[in-house]
Amino acid sequence: MYYARTIGIALVFILGLAGCGGGLDTDVFDDMNPSGEDKRPAVVAGSEGTQVGQVSPDFTLQDTLSVSHTLSNELAGTSAVVIYFTMWCPICDSHMSNMRTDIIPDFPNATFYLVDYVSGSISVSRSEQLSNGYSNLDVLVDTDLTLYNRYQASMGTTIVIDSTGVVRMNEDYNNSRLRAVLSAL
């Protein structure tokens, strides 16, 4: 009975694999070893968009004190605007704490914003900001997910937009990468 069950489980597993990519050919196993090739269309420098090298579209969001912030206004007099998408989870807290202690002090000419895209309202976002200990950082509230969707963001996405409006970084948080991008400005 044991062998029949083991063979049955193995058969189900093999049939499951056969359903992926049309059979037990190389397509299935190619998915397990991605090429690393970026298959997105090439970015045209100077075009408007949210990818690295494109000019960011302008946007306006309110912060947790109901003050409106417009990207084009925020870029005036700063080397860059840095946007970090947070869910107030432990991973985000780790990133934000690292940013607060290791990045922000070294780049006083850059403007940093946390973007709360999960709380759904300014008042709930303000409560999350205070209860998580981030009263000293500006938190923008993306109640309708406009910015989140525009940048195809997720938890931890970090955007750097230089003073000319060009996107210089759009990827998951990485302390050394963020530092390198800001240092190059």
What does it look like?
The chain is of the alpha/beta class and 185 residues long. It folds into 2 domains: 2-32; 60-183, Glutaredoxin, CATH 3.40.30. Helices cover 36% and strands 20% of the residues. It is built from 7 helices and 7 strands. The protein has helices at 2-18, 26-32, 71-75, 90-103, 122-131, 146-150, 175-183, and strands at 60-63, 68-70, 80-86, 110-116, 138-141, 157-162, 167-172. It has a 7-stranded mixed sheet. The protein is globular. The chain starts with a helix and ends with a helix. The mean pLDDT is 87.
Short note summarizing the structure:
With 185 residues, the protein is an alpha/beta fold. Helices cover 36% and strands 20% of the residues. It has helices spanning 2-18, 26-32, 71-75, 90-103, 122-131, 146-150, 175-183, and strands spanning 60-63, 68-70, 80-86, 110-116, 138-141, 157-162, 167-172.
